[in-house]
UniProtKB/TrEMBL annotation:
GO terms for biological process: glycine decarboxylation via glycine cleavage system. The modification N6-(pyridoxal phosphate)lysine is found at K691. The glycine cleavage system is composed of four proteins: P, T, L and H. GO terms for cellular component: cytosol; glycine cleavage complex. Residues 761-882 form the Glycine dehydrogenase C-terminal domain. Belongs to the GcvP family. The lineage of its organism: Bacteria, Bacillati, Actinomycetota, Actinomycetes, Glycomycetales. NCBIfam families: gcvP, PRK04366.1. One of its GO terms (molecular function) is glycine binding. This is Glycine dehydrogenase (decarboxylating). Transmembrane segments: none annotated. The gene is gcvP. It comes from Glycomyces buryatensis.
Length: 940
């Protein structure tokens, strides 16, 4: 491999660095290291079939050719996907800006104030528009948000309530398809009917879902249906178009308990289906039931307002048997885009865009009517449904011939959706296709009684950044207070924060990819299909499976899809009774949550003292559930960061008992090129393309969680939500290929790395973790190691004894690391009181050393507390992180110096300054505020 290969840029260490690191680890070579730490039994003998690596330039040229075989046309198909102008200042300032896209989920709130503010803006937009006070940030897509609303309604229902969830017949078809997938395993009885007629409603029901406006474009007053549902003790959810809500009465105002939807049309390209931020808002009394994350306002150690994730105890939503939702990675970057769009346009701008959209639709409706065409309904926001008996296909074909996609509803009906980008010329073409004449401008056709009367987005943030200079600076100010990979390493165990190379990122905004509607006719999307087919093939190859679906839009959704595949296969074999899912105690929270959502019973398997699956306990649990065993769900290498020797034996035991093996592939960065889960005994896995395959974490999403299966499970992969006949399992996301719009990133990664590159990357990641373990072992015990004393691609530093002796907690160390210029490792997962470090292959030796030296210096600070030099409450550890305001303030009465506070050993002048001190989480939860606070809160 020449020195200028992409892999030599992606892998941070040089050959000389690796030699020095091997010496520190006590291994003669990379091969020897891998032989020593990875059990021979799991090593794959077959090499990867990936094509050999090409350069950045060549890979982009190849992808360019694929992109050019797409033919993006204007799409007026609608159905939850609309044309939108991404403001250039936001595309460049957010979507293409590593300060935004390389950040992690804001668990370390002190170094995440920028994206937390953007997400608070998002929540404020949603709360304002939906008329419900508590909005989260964010959900995966509209359809899965509707499924979450269904589950929320069921949790809120009284015990023994009915199993019936009523869905209005006007909901989007993909939403209904996902609801069916999610309802079935939980025994929820979906009743689809016209909710406009109360006589259609069953006597008992626990919830109801309405669409506003409906798929037929109609804007209905749902007050009576809502009242009828409430009389039956049911909760009402409304799936609402976010742009329509700018003009329409808020659903919360006339009775909705939950509102869900998509924010795609607020500036996010269609991207062949995603990623787009889904949203959900709820009434006050349901706030603790909200799935996903909620940003809230609290205060820091000096009493200043500070943001953080609120009600974190709610991460119980991904907690074992009591799980209520499995959402972990969500859609933070698209949510930031949507919020920024609202900040940029402000209330008047949004109103102008919404009015303009509605006027274009009304004008189109009037034009068609004027030409004698039957147009359904007398109200509409953006969608016009026209009856052309026997001629729908001709109309759609004529429009397509001139460059516009319309929606064929059936042989007699055509629907046309207008949006922000629709021009007068577009309207003329559409009229031509219908053989109609475009009439003059018309007022929007919104019923007076359903017009919004209250002001929206009254908070000053929505009227302060309307010049491009102001907007550019606002986005920069937010990005500047955040810590992303563009500042330094983010050694989060289990999260694989590796390089997101610019050459991988660039193609996501190429218009040939970004501007394609997911339901565009096949002949326009050849490039997309080719890219997806190639990528699915490569992924299947590298993990040793027969088939892959990229549909799941997060790891959690891949887990659900995988478990549903197992169940469907077993059911087809006459073993539908199998419903027990064995999960080791160390598992990631999403595993158990997904099992619960798949209707399985979770049985926890203990881990032994070495952190491995306890084989005796496994035997006992298998025996106790012999006839009902559905699956074992296990992470490999384990979440303890060790290649368990026994994995092949474990898989054998489960298979012998008639169960299937699910290997959680989130740790694939420790296997790629060396071992394939599909070959060492697993039947199904999900992969996290936002971990191993370089999709950036985006501050908490988007991600892609493909599900990969062995031959026998291939017929049970998630199906196309728009298919006439549902597949065996049904869809888990609303778009057939989920978050297709970011698949260019893993495609570029694999194309530029090739088989040798990914194999070298894995070994470099394992070497880096072992190097850190070796350097830090004396300061902090490494909790688990394999038989050779080696770890896999991450290592757990055990602080429990230190904490017990000195009172210094993992949180203190995490916050003190901020003063040293680092993002903390993963705190207290999978073992409370520990830090899990995953350096990845992308960090260079200087950065690894800087981290080790910071950790060693912190150990010395802990020892000072231990020696009684100063009490922990007065130490720099407990009072960390230190803001510039505190350090440069006129008062200084601490037991350590200002220099020690802000300039501990190794910190350079390019130091990262946290904008706030340690945040008081409990105070914020007691005084919950999750929309933009009034300005006087900042002066008080
Ligand atoms: C990240 C992770 C998941 C969940 O993936 P999401 O994309 O966040 O839903 C599951 N298991 C493990 C071990 C993980 O590290």
């Amino acid at each position: 491999m020449s020195d200028r290969s992409f892999s030599s840029r992606h892998i941070g260490t040089s050959a000389a660095d690796r030699d020095a690191m091997l010496k520190a680890v006590g291994q003669p070579s990379i091969e020897a290291l891998m032989d020593a730490c990875m059990p021979a039994l799991i090593r794959s003998s077959d090499s990867l079939a990936l094509p050999a690596a090409v350069s950045e330039t060549e890979a982009q040229a190849e992808l360019r050719a694929i992109a050019e075989s797409n033919r993006p046309m204007r799409s007026m198909i609608g159905l939850g996907y609309h044309g939108t102008h991404t403001p250039a200042v936001i595309r460049r300032g957010v979507l293409e800006n590593p300060s935004w896209y390389t950040a992690y989920t804001p668990y370390q709130a002190e170094i995440s104030q920028g994206r937390l503010e953007a997400l608070l803006n998002f929540q404020t937009v949603i709360a304002d528009l939906t008329g419900l006070p508590v909005a989260g940030a964010s959900l995966l897509d509209e359809a899965s948000a509707a499924a979450e609303a269904m589950l929320l309604a069921r949790r809120a229902a009284s015990r023994g309530a009915s199993d019936v969830f009523v869905v209005d017949s006007r909901v989007l078809p993909q939403t209904l398809a996902v609801l069916r997938t999610r309802a079935e395993p939980l025994g929820i009885d979906l009743v689809v009917t016209d909710c406009g007629d109360e006589t259609n409603l069953p006597e008992s029901m626990f919830g109801m879902l309405l669409q506003y406006p409906g798929v037929d474009g109609a804007i209905l007053d749902w007050s009576e249906a809502m009242a009828a549902a409430h009389e039956r003790g049911a909760k009402v959810a409304v799936a609402a178009d976010v742009l329509a809500l700018v003009l329409l009465r808020a659903p919360g105002e006339f009775g909705a308990d939950i509102v869900v939807g998509s924010t795609q049309r607020l500036g996010m390209p269609m991207g062949f289906g995603g990623p787009h931020a889904g949203y959900m808002s709820v009434r006050e009394e349901l706030k603790r039931q909200l799935p996903g994350r909620l940003v809230g306002v609290s205060r820091d150690s000096s009493g200043a307002p500070a943001l953080r994730l609120a009600l974190q105890a709610r991460e119980q939503h991904i907690r074992r048997e009591r799980a209520t939702s499995n959402i972990c990675t969500a859609q933070v970057l698209p949510a930031v885009m949507a919020a920024s769009y609202a900040v940029w346009h402000g209330p008047e701008g949004l109103r102008r865009i919404a009015e303009d959209t509605a006027e274009k639709a009304a004008r189109l409706a009037a034009s068609l009517r004027g030409s004698g065409i039957d147009v359904a309904g007398d109200s509409c926001f953006d969608t016009v449904v026209a009856r052309m008996p026997g001629h729908a296909d001709t109309v759609v074909a004529e429009a397509a011939a001139i460059g516009i996609n319309l929606r064929r509803v059936d042989a007699d009906t055509v629907a046309v959706a207008c949006d922000e980008t629709t021009t007068e010329a577009d309207l003329r073409i559409v009229c031509d296709a219908f053989g109609a004449r475009l009439a003059g401008a018309t007022a929007a056709a919104i019923p007076v009684s359903l017009r919004r009367e209250d002001a929206i987005l009254t908070h000053p943030v929505f009227s302060s950044h309307h010049s491009e200079t102001a907007m550019m600076r606002y986005l920069k100010r937010l990005a500047d207070v955040d810590y992303g990979l563009d500042r330094g390493m983010i050694p989060l165990g289990s999260c694989t924060m590796k390089l997101n190379a610019a050459a991988e990122m660039e193609p996501i905004t190429w218009p040939e990819f970004a501007d394609v509607h997911p339901l565009a006719p096949r002949e326009q999307t050849a490039g997309w299909r080719r890219l997806i087919e190639q990528l699915e093939g490569w992924l299947a190859d590298v993990c040793g499976y027969a088939a892959v679906s990229v549909q799941p839009n997060a790891g959690s959704q891949g887990e659900l899809a995988g478990l549903l595949a197992i169940q469907a296969w077993q059911s087809d074999r006459g073993e539908a009774g199998r419903d027990v899912c064995l999960i080791p105690a160390s598992a990631h929270g999403t595993n158990a949550a997904s099992a619960v959502l798949a209707g399985m019973r979770v049985v926890v398997v203990a881990c032994d003292e070495a952190g491995n699956v306890d084989l005796a306990d496994l035997d006992a649990k298998i025996a106790a559930n012999a006839d009902s065993l559905a699956a074992l769900m296990v992470t490999y290498p384990s979440t303890h960061g060790v290649y368990e020797e026994s994995i092949v034996e474990v898989c054998g035991k489960v298979h012998d008992a008639g169960g299937q093996v699910y290997v959680d592939g989130a740790n694939l960065n420790a296997l790629l090129g060396w071992a394939k889960p599909g070959r060492f005994g697993a039947d199904v896995s999900h992969l996290n393309l936002h971990k191993t395959f370089c999709i950036p974490h985006g501050g908490g999403g988007p991600g892609v969680g493909p599900v990969a299966v062995a031959e026998h499970l291939a017929p049970y992969l998630p199906s196309d939500p728009m298919a006439e006949a549902p597949g065996a399992v049904g869809p888990v996301s609303q778009a057939r290929w989920g978050s297709a719009g970011i698949l260019q990133i893993p495609w570029m990664y694999l194309r530029m790395m090739g088989p040798d590159g990914v194999t070298a990357a894995t070994a470099s990641a394992v070497l880096a973790a072992n190097y850190i373990a070796a350097r830090l072992r004396e300061s902090y015990p490494v909790l688990y190691a394999g038989e050779q004393g080696l770890v896999a691609h991450e290592c757990i530093l055990d602080l429990r004894e230190l904490t017990q002796r000195t009172g210094v907690t993992v949180e203190d160390v995490a916050k003190r690391l901020i003063d040293y210029g680092f993002h903390a490792p993963t705190m207290s997962f999978p073992v409370a009181g520990t830090l899990m470090v995953e350096p990845t292959e992308s960090e260079d030796l200087a950065e690894l050393d800087r981290f080790c030296e910071a950790m060693i210096a912190i150990r010395a600070e802990i020892d000072q507390v231990g020696a009684g030099v100063l009490p922990v409450e007065e130490s720099a550890l407990r009072l960390a992180p230190h803001t510039a305001a505190v350090v440069t303030g006129d008062e200084w009465d601490r037991a350590y110096s200002r220099t020690e506070a802000a300039w501990p050993a190794g910190v350079s002048t390019a130091k990262y300054w946290p904008p706030v001190g340690r945040i008081d989480n409990a105070w914020g939860d007691r005084n919950l505020a999750c929309t933009c606070p009034p300005l006087d809160a900042y002066t008080g």
